[in-house]
Design a protein that fits this description.
The protein is mostly beta strands. The chain has 2 domains: 3-406, no CATH class; 411-467, Dockerin domain (Type 1 dockerin domain). Helices cover 10% and strands 36% of the residues. The strands form 4 sheets. Strands 3, 4, 6, 7, 8, 10, 11, 12, 13, 14 and 15 form an 11-stranded antiparallel β-sheet that branches. A hairpin with a 5-residue loop joins strand 17 (282-291) and strand 18 (297-305). Residues 12-31 have low confidence and may be disordered.
Length: 467
């Protein structure tokens, strides 16, 4: 069964509301239900570890804020603590003038411990104790330096966490990992070399928290924040990533695309009502369409899964022609059990869609929570409001989503008398019939003979043009 999910259009207004928040003061949420509410209040420092095989490793410091009105359990030796993911993104200008966002790196998950009671979010007048405690008070903040977020032995695999309900096994699975780059935020050095991108290029980092009590309170929709960074240094020693500006609180990094290019459209979708289902299931799709010099259109899409545990295994938009087909996705690593296989891609004529599909096996490179895939292609069809398709990986269902897609292109209806195929019946077609009279070459009606019947067809269609 297919269902259609309407998206909420998020334009520049929603984006600017996020920018009004500085790293010092978090925007207040709705606390009437007296629930805890963890957010990423600040991304505050970055550590670089080294290079192995053209891959550099980093860690990003995160400060969490409990902006709700109840305590959050922060126990180290149980599954009542947060997990913290770190990601990196690039927004760049293409040769055709369009823009694109790509997730260029991801880490394993830092498991939280020791909640300090600091004041990034406010006065912290309801602390969960003093010093290093197992409870984070409300209006209190807890910092993790990049040193702690990069501790390899305390980083667990992403696939074990169910972000929709905030659950994960304890202790987490801990396979052997490579030194230096294992489990940390990994980025291919070539992706940080700005000389590889002649147009505009901007970089961003993101932090994301998952906490069981926050999820139970249906507050997971605001758990990701991002911040701009600049690249310096050289590839030989590993590029430096330097924080700039302020943290865009409670905004997932897909909004960095719209920050760089305000014409990008971003829509928010939910698979279910958390108050009814008990599952946090929010995702976003960004889109950008550019008309090319040759009259064709370039379509860019970014599918960002915030907290849908079901994950996504296919993405398709209506199209009957496509070329310059492209996809980009983050690379899982360090033995977390997720494939890095490319999705299949191409026009599926039976469905009338441009479709990308992941593998169907359990290790498929599906769009997991807190990750993003980028898709693009060129088409002769101009954009219109329509429906795209998204496949749910764990439930094997397909859903329809409202989105800007290529408009249907009517098939060309030829004229019967157009022998030379130039979409008009004129003297050239008449000359061809007369010049091949009595042979098969000028035959139109299929009787293998050019004669008066073929001449009559040309004359009847005179001045006809293809439709």
């Amino acid at each position: 069964m297919k269902i259609t999910i309407a998206g909420t259009l998020l334009g520049c207004t929603a984006l600017m509301l996020g920018h009004l928040n500085s790293d010092a003061v978090a925007s207040r949420g709705d606390s009437t239900g007296c629930n805890p509410d963890v957010i990423v209040g600040s991304l505050h420092n970055i550590t670089k570890y080294g290079i192995v095989g053209g891959i550099s490793a980093y860690a990003v410091g995160t400060t969490s804020c409990n902006q709700g009105c109840d305590y959050l359990i922060w126990e180290q030796n149980s599954n009542l603590h947060p997990t913290i993911g770190q990601n990196a993104y690039m927004v760049r200008e293409l040769e055709n003038g369009c823009t694109r966002i790509e997730q260029i790196g991801m880490s394993w998950l830092k498991h939280g411990f020791c909640a300090l009671q600091q004041q990034l979010c406010g006065p912290c007048d309801n602390p969960g104790g003093f010093g290093c405690t197992d409870i984070l008070g409300w209006n209190c903040s807890d910092p993790y330096d990049s040193y702690f977020n990069g501790q390899q032995n305390n980083l667990g695999p992403r696939p074990e966490v169910n972000a929709s309900i905030g659950s994960f096994p304890w202790p987490f699975t801990s396979p052997a990992y490579p030194q230096t780059i294992g489990r940390r935020l990994q980025i291919q050095n070539s992706l940080l070399d700005e000389d590889n991108y002649p147009g505009l290029v901007r970089y961003f980092v993101e932090g994301h928290y998952v906490h069981p009590e926050d999820a139970a309170a249906c507050m997971s929709y605001n758990n990701a924040s991002y911040r701009p960074v600049e690249i310096s240094g050289s590839g030989n020693n590993g590029y430096n990533i330097n924080l700039t500006e302020t943290t865009r609180q409670m905004q997932p990094a897909i909004f960095a695309w719209q920050e760089v290019d305000p014409s990008v459209e971003i829509r928010e979708y939910t698979l279910s009502d958390c108050a009814q289902s008990g599952r946090n299931e929010t995702f976003f799709i960004g889109s950008k369409v550019c008309q090319l010099d040759n009259g064709r259109y370039h379509y860019e899409y970014a599918v960002y899964n915030l907290d849908c545990d079901v994950s996504f295994s296919k993405f398709g938009v209506p199209a009957n022609d496509a070329d310059n087909i492209y996809q980009f996705y983050p690379k899982y690593h360090s033995g977390d059990g997720v494939s890095v296989s490319r999705w299949s891609q191409g026009i599926e004529e039976s469905m009338g869609m441009m479709m990308w599909r992941s593998k169907t096996s359990s290790d498929a490179n599906a769009i997991m929570y807190n990750s993003m895939h980028t898709f693009s292609f060129d088409s002769n069809a101009e954009p219109t409001e329509g429906q795209a398709m998204l496949g749910l990986f764990k439930s094997s269902e397909d859903i329809n989503i409202d989105l800007v897609v290529p408009s249907p292109v009517d098939p060309i209806v030829p004229c019967d008398g157009d022998i030379d195929g130039n979409c008009v019946v004129n003297g050239q077609d008449l000359a061809y019939v007369l010049g091949n009279w009595g042979s098969e070459l000028g035959d139109i009606n299929g009787d293998a003979l050019t004669n008066g019947q073929d001449l009559a067809i040309v004359l009847a269609d005179w001045d006809c043009t293809c439709q």
